[in-house]
Amino acid sequence: xxxxxxxxxxxxxxxxxxxxxxxxxxxxxxxxxxxxxxxxxxxxxxxxxxxxxxxxxxxxxxxxxxxxxxxxxxxxxxxxxxxxxxxxxxxxxxxxxxxxxxxxxxxxxxxxxxxxxxxxxxxxxxxxxxxxxxxxxxxxxxxxxxxxxxxxxxxxxxxxxxxxxxxxxxxxxxx
Length: 175
Hints:
Elements: H1 25-40, E1 45-47, E2 57-60, E3 75-95, E4 98-116, E5 122-128, H2 129-142, H3 153-174
Antiparallel strand pairs: 1-2, 2-3, 3-4, 4-5
């Protein structure tokens, strides 16, 4: 299954994802294809909505000290729910759906998440650092929220202007 990343300003990114009820081969195929797409795009996280599937599924693969991503450290979260938060941190985020743009976003420093794995088993993870930030970023996608939606009004206006300019340049370079 070949997947294409949906890019801003595509309206599908604003869609709220639906809970997953069936943990079947179709879900497994989607998760496997999401992994290939994410790694092929140099990403560390990807929500199903970012590849056009409005399902409450996301994957994460934080690189190790050598900047390698091993399939052994892949985390697949189905129907995730944050049950605890503490602390506040700011991190410069980017997004595969908003290419070439990075901005500081405030997030919870520590989180606890209940979720299901690809087979429907219930799991709990406690996360901090980049993993915590990535989980929150991807979970926002499930609610139709992009990291740029968290920017102040003036920063958002600056983003819109810069992004339009970048899109124009991209089109010109292709012609």
